[in-house]
Write a structure and sequence with these properties.
Radius of gyration: 16 Å
CATH architecture: 2-Layer Sandwich
Strand order of the largest sheet: 2-3-1-4
CATH topology: Alpha-Beta Plaits
Helix content: 10-25%
Distance between the termini: 27 Å
Number of domains: 1
Structural class: alpha+beta
Number of helices: 2
Oligomer: single chain
Largest sheet: 4 strands, antiparallel
Shape: globular
Strand content: 25-35%
CATH superfamily: Lrp/AsnC effector binding domain/regulation of amino acid metabolism (RAM) domain
Number of strands: 4
Amino acid sequence: MGTKLYPDAKKFGYTHIATIGININYAQKNEVLKLIQEQANANLIEFSSSIGKYDVCAFMVAKSLQELDNITQAIRKHPGVKRIAVNIWVSEPYFLLENLDLQPTRV
């Protein structure tokens, strides 16, 4: 599978990073996934179906809390969405490109 590294979202004006958990009605799964892509647009880093507390998990960035709230409210209103939980990150993620040490080492 490998590792994914992301650019620092703050350098592009995105000051908020959030993980969003969504429980859905599976009969409307494709509609809900399409809605997430449409509503999140440039804010969506990635999302995936998951096993656990939520059916879908999304990783998003936003330029303001209002922008993040607008996106989540639009998703929440879909009849196929049962529950949505937003977790806003308060520290920077470790999987940023600048955290990768690319200096060669001697063996």
